[in-house]
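job 3f2a | input accepted
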Amino acid sequence: MAKLTLEQLNEVLTNYEDFLLKYRDKYPTEAIEYIKQMFLGRAFREDIEIDIMSQVYAATGVFKYVDNAYDRHIKAMQRDYDLNRNLIEVGAGFYPAVAEKIAGIQEAGSVTAYDPELIVEEMAQVILKKSKFDAKTDIKGADMLYAIMPCEATLDAIEGANENDIDLYLALCGCTHFNNWSILWGPTTWGRWFDYVVSEVERTLPKGRKYEIDESDEFQYPTIKTYRKIY
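job 3f2a | predicted structure (231 res):
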């Protein structure tokens, strides 16, 4: 169960007030009401991570004090890839917290964050793109694409990385986002969605690349990674 000390809580609440003051008018009304309802509530105490809230927790300093999937994903990427390159984040969310964290630890390279719902207009060391990413988006010069629980941007992330023949780190969420109407006939279970995602990785994977699926207990849902083959 996630817990904060009194000193940590006071610091976080001050940061939260500042966050709301700065960004409340930039969020959709439903989103800001949801944030106010959920902040440090039951889901937080029970370690249930909800992406929109994780962004807020990262921005307000909560994640300095509690274990969280964002930090674990960044560590996983550091284990498997060189992050000191030119990176693309797809589905960065309202507040691009993962991009901000990675940019802060990079010694070289860049981070470009895409999301049509971005509320941040500028962020130190992060190139912000308030637009929808798809396979035709020009990302010439990029070395790697990552997406952390990107929901409806999942298939675009796969196609974009494979179309540009770059590394992919895709952390799946628990949603389903079929774009093939023929698949919608029948139960759209998460298992069928996962099989479909893997088939899209296989279908679009460039020659000379391999993929692997990480289903470790470190994360609630699998992570798909692609690499260039070493012969």
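job 3f2a | The first strand starts at residue 86 and ends at 90.
job 3f2a | closed
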